[in-house]
Amino acid sequence: MTYIVAENCIRCKYTDCVDVCPVDCFREGENFLVIDPDECIDCSLCVAECPANAIYAADDVPADQQQFIALNAELAKLWKPIIAKKEAPADADDWLKVKDKLHLLQR
Q1: Please, which residues have CB within 8 angstroms of residue 16's CB and are 6 or more apart in sequence?
Q2: Rounded to an integer, what is the distance from CA 33 to the centroid of its chain?
Q3: Domains detected in the chain
Q4: pTM, full prediction
Q5: Residues in Cβ contact with 94 at an 8 Å cutoff, skipping those fewer than 6 apart
Q6: Tell me: the pLDDT tens digits for 13-50?
Q7: What is the widest separation between alpha-carbon atoms in the chain?
């Protein structure tokens, strides 16, 4: 089982999770993070660190977020690794509770 970054990360992109990852499995896009399923060791350390509650075990991804399993795998092949925490976008807190953000994802 791997972990998945889901919709709530879009436009929030807090990177607290990156600091605790022992294998550097996070990949960074313009306004979203993904987890490389080939690198993730299922340690679950990132789950508690995510202020957006956007990280799920693959078996626990909500039904309305299932498309993010394939999306993480796809984008992890295209995006570069992120290995250190960065400042969150200035408006990250404004986007934290917004729903239905998939159309805002910048590939």
Answers
A1: 49, 50, 51, 85
A2: 4
A3: 3-81 (3.30.70.20)
A4: 0.95
A5: none
A6: 999 999 999 999 999 999 999 999 999 999 999 999 99
A7: 33
